[in-house]
User: Fold this.
Amino acid sequence: MPKIPYRAKHYANVLNVEQPVTFDPYRKHVYHKATKEAGIAAMLQKLMIHDDYENALKLYKILLQSSRYHIANMWEMGVELIGTVEPKLLTDFLQGVFLSAPNKLRVTVFNAYIENLMLEERWREALDELELRCHRPKYHTPMLLEKLKICKQKVKGKYSLTEEKEEEDEEEG
Assistant:
């Protein structure tokens, strides 16, 4: 009997009509991690497209708590979800993402974090964060330097306005 190559043995019964192919529902399928992540991301996007942000946020939180999916891969989706459902927690979320982000994402996430602080008019916190990091070469970008300048002006203006109000109160009193 001639020796049949492995590939031919493997596909020998494919065209055999007499032996039907049976489906085994208990057979475990092997999925790659990238395929799972893509499927989860697609499920999240589908929920977001259908404006089901509450369920999408629940799924997002479960994924992060499972520790199988790193926040750096899905932080932009989290910003959209939390910004829509719980906008008061967005700054804390961005701060957490910034602290756990890998080096290549740190400047991008820091920029978003500072923008959110500025939108909430938390000028002192934004100024403190910027002054802490602006001397490092990585954070010495024109955009962050401009934000530093704006924060300094706002903080200086805010304190000068409060001093003027105090002086007016003293003159009236």
